[in-house]
Design a protein that fits this description.
The chain contains 20 helices and 21 strands. It is an alpha+beta fold.
Length: 661
């Protein structure tokens, strides 16, 4: 054991190697924070430069002139400025920073250069927050806090003497302190996150990059051109609400009223409303919707949404809602819906939905003949039911592959292929209704959802994109019609069990709560928290829209954060006791239980001489004699000697037990 302690005492680490190693780690963390958003060319450039830098320092005796480094850096910055556009400012800047970081790795580094590496890494992390502020950001943030804290301390040693070596124990102490500082930064970060003022106006939105991912929702539908969407598992939005009957799981987005033979579009048949509609009757459902960036401006609400709370939202009488601009970042809005199969409307509004495409190919005459043979003499709702039954009867097959994409896709679907996805069924239904004199329109959105019991919300992925029909029924208004056969590709709530499914829901719950608590934390919530705290202390409170449960949880979080911060500060300030101090304190405590107390002015031998009990005095004197051989010579007590001293203390305690027996 003594040989091991001697080895540890002799183990020395070169400060220069530590600084270089941790500086590379800092740069890699900064790079990883943005690597998923930057181009592969710049990512490969950074990796190549980093590998070359390590190889150069370990194997090559090569010094690259600083003037060459400065020219390359200037060119990279100029290239970033040239590539920036109004719609995409962040990514070119980050890619240039990645390249600059790689260049800094390659050059011969001094104190100033190391600090520049740390600064670039911090800028990269800050830039990543403009692109995606997810939970991974938090991991990178605290990793940088730890690494930079530790490396800056090492850098102070390096600046004094680049050839300096540290004992392994000293390096461990530096790591320990860096860990404590990082842990303290967690509650401090949470505290300032909660109290710092916020604004509902997105001041930095002009920096955000436009979303480029595929979305299952568009403002037009062309037959046969959205098949890939039905295989995309990416979650587009999550809805915090109670479970509802599966038949109402239609997420309304847009109403499409104009058809040119291949494509449905919204031509503005719905008029913008100044007042919320109050003419629907049914069960009211409250929803909190967390929408991912999808490069469009339509909101989604369950079944018949009548209210959406979001700044400058535009509402229309067809129960659709639009943001003032495309959704390019994660947003949260509240909605109220009415569960109902029908929606009041007047005949003048409905008749706007009788438009038919110009029939230059003679397609509609054949479709009209088919519709007439199905409807026969039926009118109104009976005619609608007949057409729906025809499409649901089993003669047609649901498919997302090999769909008709000819110049006459609707005719090919009805008479030849008899297979297609939901937009074919909905288009056929709406066109045949219009040919029969019944106003009809398409509604685009999503159908179904996976309910996450852990978080209490629905997950709606891209592949649940769906189109259905609304037909005007006299006396009832617009009625929802589902022409796509049941049991086909329509997504509904599925009860999926198993470990992997449960793990998926658990991970998604973490992301959901992160979005709810962090990304959507705003000034309103701050006011509600303050109001709740004021009310708790019987002070005049503000009007609250936040429920009491959420306010209580947030208050508890503040208190727990403050307590955790206080505990860490105490641990940081508390001087760590050496083994010698611990064994001495243990000895004095054992003697103290016999009624003997050592004053601060007494020496150990003087203190032992006052002990009256001869047996205790003898044991105490033996302890002091052995202890002083090490303590007052500034020698470390080995483990064996500590065990012998501990045995004496145990003997002293037993003396007391013998006296009390």
């Amino acid at each position: 054991m003594e040989s091991k302690n001697l080895l540890n005492a002799k183990t020395r680490l070169k400060v220069e190697n530590l600084v270089k190693g941790f500086s590379y780690a800092i740069g890699v963390v900064g790079f990883l924070s943005v690597a998923r958003d930057t181009g592969i060319t710049y990512n490969l450039l950074f990796i190549s430069l980093s590998v070359f830098a390590v190889y150069r320092e370990s194997r090559l005796n090569l010094v690259i002139p600083r003037w060459a480094i400065n020219i390359i850096s200037f060119l990279l910055i100029a290239l970033a400025l040239m590539r920036m556009t109004q719609d995409n400012m962040v990514v070119p800047a980050l890619e240039s920073l990645i390249a600059l970081l790689g260049v800094k790795f390659v050059e011969e580094k001094k104190f100033r250069d190391y600090m520049q590496v740390y600064a670039i890494s911090i800028f990269l992390l800050a830039g990543s927050a403009l692109l995606s502020l997810d939970m991974l950001f938090l991991t990178f943030f605290f990793s940088l806090v730890f690494l930079i804290t530790m490396t800056v301390v090492l850098l102070t040693y390096y600046s004094e003497d680049s050839a300096m070596e540290l004992q392994a124990s000293t390096a461990i102490k530096i790591v320990y302190r860096a860990v404590l500082i990082t842990l303290i930064s967690i509650p401090i970060t949470i505290f300032f996150f909660i109290i710092l003022p916020r604004t509902n106006y997105p001041l930095l939105n002009f920096l955000n990059r436009a979303a480029t991912g595929m979305s299952g929702f568009t403002d037009s539908i062309t037959l046969g051109e959205i098949s890939d969407i039905f295989e995309d598992n990416t979650v587009l939005f999550r809805v915090k609400m109670n479970k509802v009957d599966d038949k109402f799981l239609y997420w309304r987005g847009i109403v499409l009223d104009h058809f040119d033979g291949r494509t449905w579009r919204s031509m503005g048949a719905g008029e913008e409303q100044k007042l919320w509609r109050t003419d629907l009757r049914g069960v009211r459902i409250f929803q909190s919707v967390f929408l991912e960036p999808y490069n469009n401006r339509y909101f989604f609400g369950l079944d018949k949404p009548t209210y959406v709370h979001y700044p400058k939202v535009k509402r229309f009488d067809d129960l659709t809602f639009r943001a003032p601009e495309n959704v390019m970042r994660k947003i949260k809005y509240d909605a109220i819906s009415i569960l109902s199969d029908t929606m009041p409307a007047n005949i003048a509004e409905a008749n706007k939905n009788l438009q038919l495409p110009f029939d230059k190919l003679g397609t509609l005459s054949k479709v009209k003949e088919l519709a007439g043979s199905i409807v026969e003499n039926r009118k109104g709702e009976n005619a609608v039911n007949a057409l729906q039954h025809y499409l649901n009867s089993g003669a047609f097959r649901y498919s997302i592959r090999g769909m008709p994409v000819s110049k006459k896709p609707l005719e090919e679907f009805l008479f030849d292929r008899k297979e297609g996805s939901c937009e074919y069924y909905a288009s056929a239904m709406a066109v045949m209704l219009r040919l029969s004199g019944i106003p009809a329109r398409l509604v685009g959105g999503f159908r179904g959802g996976d309910y996450n019991d852990i978080g209490g919300y629905y997950m709606v992925p891209q592949k649940y994109a769906h189109v259905w029909v609304e037909a005007y029924i006299e006396g009832k208004g617009w009625k929802r019609i589902e022409p796509t056969p049941a049991g086909s590709g329509i997504s509904t709530v599925k009860i999926r069990k198993g470990f992997l499914r449960g793990l998926q829901f658990f991970i998604d719950s973490i992301n959901y709560y992160w979005s709810a608590a962090v990304i959507n934390y705003n000034l309103e919530k701050q006011i509600n928290i303050v109001g709740s705290l004021m009310k708790a202390f019987k002070q005049p409170s503000l009007r609250l829209s936040l429920d009491k449960g959420e306010a209580a949880r947030t208050s508890l979080l503040i208190i727990a954060t403050a307590a955790f911060a206080g505990l860490l500060v105490i641990l940081l300030k508390r001087k760590r006791q050496s083994p010698e101090d611990k064994i001495l304190n243990s000895f004095l405590a054992a003697i103290g239980k016999h009624g003997y107390r050592k004053s601060s002015s007494e020496g150990l031998e003087e203190f032992v001489a006052k002990i009256r009990d001869p047996h205790i005095r003898k044991d105490a004197a033996t302890f002091v004699s052995k202890f002083q051989q090490f303590y007052y010579r500034d020698l470390k007590i080995g483990k064996d000697e500590l065990n012998r001293l501990a045995d004496i203390i145990t003997k002293v305690k037993r003396r007391r037990a013998d006296l009390n027996r």
